[in-house]
Design brief:
By secondary structure, the protein is mostly helical. It is 71% helix and 0% strand. The chain is built from 15 helices and no strands.
Length: 310
């Protein structure tokens, strides 16, 4: 079978898709990551930050909301990263901030991936006015100015973690929906699916039993990509003051550091830099993990060397 023009080459030669059909999606994903150096590196980084977020009450030396020392205290034995402008321990803020930043990224990615999966499956499987209408709506969402619209919506609904999740998730699903649609179109023309249609199988049955298992690799890769983008957008919104002012996230730390003249006082070295490095490390982890998953979904990305198999 010749793949459709513009569709991802995941049907005919996809290591992850073929393995998932035999062993289950979870085992196939783990097998692919285990055989990829970028995947292992990304998984290690994300696991490290994930464990730190889960164990934040144990790892953090202080409650991040308590005033424990004089404002702008320099790093020392009791406060490894010093304190902020009101005397709160910055290391504790950093550890607890992983909970908000990673939590928002994962929830946003879940919401965006679910919407993209539903829209992409419908637009890719059905024909006629249904698919055309859905894709025209997706095109409208894609051409909207993302950042201005996001700022307007976030301002209308007010700052908060729930607002961030809702706004980012509802604006991030359109591009993954096109990718899922392309993958569904490629699967839709397979011989066994055409036979099932002629035998009278219902669309929900075909989508659940035949289409969805084959495009799961693409959906997982898009989930990782959405989480990668979401953590950057969350930090940007929080930095602009549209996050929850009470919740401790890495973006909120940057916002208060900039608002309280951390750069003028010299506190940026231990107040701004650690949060920025944490955001960079998590983005790198998601990027490496996403690359490993895309290697399994797209044979053109499989290379030898450190970017290839371990």
């Amino acid at each position: 079978m010749t793949p459709l023009v513009g569709s991802p080459p995941i049907i005919e030669d996809s290591e992850l898709a073929a393995t998932s059909a035999r062993r289950g999606t979870a085992q196939a994903v783990f097998r692919l990551i285990r055989g990829s150096r970028p995947g292992l590196a990304g998984l290690f980084i994300l696991t490290l930050f994930g464990l730190a977020a889960i164990a934040a009450p144990v790892l953090a030396p202080y409650d991040p909301k308590d005033q424990v020392a004089a404002p702008f205290s320099s790093p020392g034995g009791d406060h490894l990263l010093g304190t902020n402008d009101i005397g709160q321990d910055i290391l504790s803020e950093l550890i607890f901030g992983a909970r908000i930043s990673l939590g928002v990224a994962l929830l946003v990615a879940t919401l965006a991936t679910i919407l993209a999966g539903i829209v992409g499956l419908i637009a890719g499987y059905f024909h006629g006015w249904v698919a055309s209408g859905v894709m025209r709506f997706v095109d409208v969402v894609l051409v909207l100015p993302f950042l201005p619209l996001m700022l307007v919506v976030a301002t209308v609904f007010g700052p908060g973690v729930r607002t961030q999740i809702l706004v980012i998730g509802l604006l991030l699903w359109a591009r993954p929906a096109r990718v899922v649609r392309a993958a569904t179109l490629a699967v839709r023309t397979a011989g066994h699916i055409e036979a099932a249609v002629w035998m009278g199988a219902t669309a929900p049955y075909i989508l659940r039993r035949h289409v969805l298992p084959r495009i799961t690799p693409v959906i997982i890769a898009e989930f990782v990509r959405a989480a990668n983008i979401a953590i950057l957008i969350e930090a940007a919104l929080a930095f602009l003051g549209l996050g929850d002012p009470v919740a401790k996230s890495w973006g909120t730390m940057l916002h208060y550091a900039q608002a309280r003249a951390a750069f003028l006082t010299g506190a940026w070295l231990y107040w701004v830099l650690p949060a920025g490095l944490c955001i960079t490390a998590v983005v790198l982890g998601f990027a490496l993990l996403g690359f490993a998953l895309e290697q399994g979904s797209d044979p053109r990305l499989r290379k030898r060397g450190w970017l290839g198999t371990a």
